[in-house]
């Protein structure tokens, strides 16, 4: 058996894959697993260690991704002498979420890291049959469509799961901030005490009664129909409240956010991004939104509001997280992350956000529980899926032509789609163009012949 030295990309993909599926293993064990999985590869343990450390996959490594702000928009390059430099990347990147407990959703899939450009995805662990439910998932945060948002604010849909209230049920519960003694009573109601309890993860800081400083921000998002801004507000509220619970809640929530595919607003702007989740306003609006965002969650201009916010956020936020949430560049990056990852109905789903695009997807996402849990998604196999096969959804209108699909996908800055359907259709298109070109050339040659004959007939040639 001949030995080969794998390229940096091949090795990185294999190591991240192994580490994701064996999170408890240290460097030596992962290295041993690597040599078993790829018996022809020649790799030193030192090289394995370096790559695992570079990707923040081992303890005592270079700082983990969550505490290195630059890493979000730049790629770290370690030179032979050990010095580091950063190069900007242009594709949406996504990193593997450490210690993600997949089993709470399904045993049928696992996370696979493909390569730097493609990032992570989901592959089948076993054969999945057409029509089978692969998993159900509740959102990490929800920024529902505006009609539903308005229903929530008219006390006509649940403030947590977004299910519209069909009848006056005795289970419907009001937000504690709804009392009329408050200056700005909260209109939000919940299906049940369970939805109320679960809403405590993010509603508290978005409640007009408990945190009045958030009102101008939410109003601005609603007026401009800026779904990514609303989603980022929900997400930020969740992170800040997680910090009040304990470090492990904060760290696991923050890992989720950092694991989302991301691309900064400026990068998307350069790639002529057009909003897929409502309008994406211009730079002036970004700055205004940022000001309102900081006022809502960190520095309310009004002392009375500041006092209320301080009471909700007793435990101070780590400095690195503070800048990761509130500085302008991070804020724009956060908006980009929301836009890229929101499901069509405005929810952000941890496992669902791992799904990559294909123009002939093999899974579909449905909201089946419209009467009880509207925000819950059910992921269903559209066709038989073989073990090892990647699960995909479509980010574009799949009935469009190959050209229109490619243009639509490029506006997300994902680059050219290379799914099997696009490869096939682009090949056919090229062949057709070539055939058309040949037909045209043949017609041109016939005309040349005719011209020559005519000229000869007239005695000109
Ligand atoms: Zn509910
Ligand atoms: Zn409330
Ligand atoms: Zn395609």
From TrEMBL:
Any single GO BP term: negative regulation of gene expression, epigenetic
InterPro entries (alphabetical): SET_dom, SET_dom_sf
Gene Ontology MF term list: histone H4K20 methyltransferase activity
The UniProt record lists the keyword Transferase: yes
Reaction(s) catalysed by this chain's protein: L-lysyl-[histone] + S-adenosyl-L-methionine = N(6)-methyl-L-lysyl-[histone] + S-adenosyl-L-homocysteine + H(+)
Domain of life: Eukaryota
Keyword list, A-Z: Methyltransferase, S-adenosyl-L-methionine, Transferase
Domain spans labelled SET: 107-396
PANTHER family attached to this UniProt entry: HISTONE-LYSINE N-TRIMETHYLTRANSFERASE SMYD5, SET AND MYND DOMAIN-CONTAINING PROTEIN 5
Protein name per its UniProtKB record: Histone-lysine N-methyltransferase SET5
The species this protein was found in: Pleurotus ostreatus
Taxonomy of the source species: Eukaryota, Fungi, Dikarya, Basidiomycota, Agaricomycotina
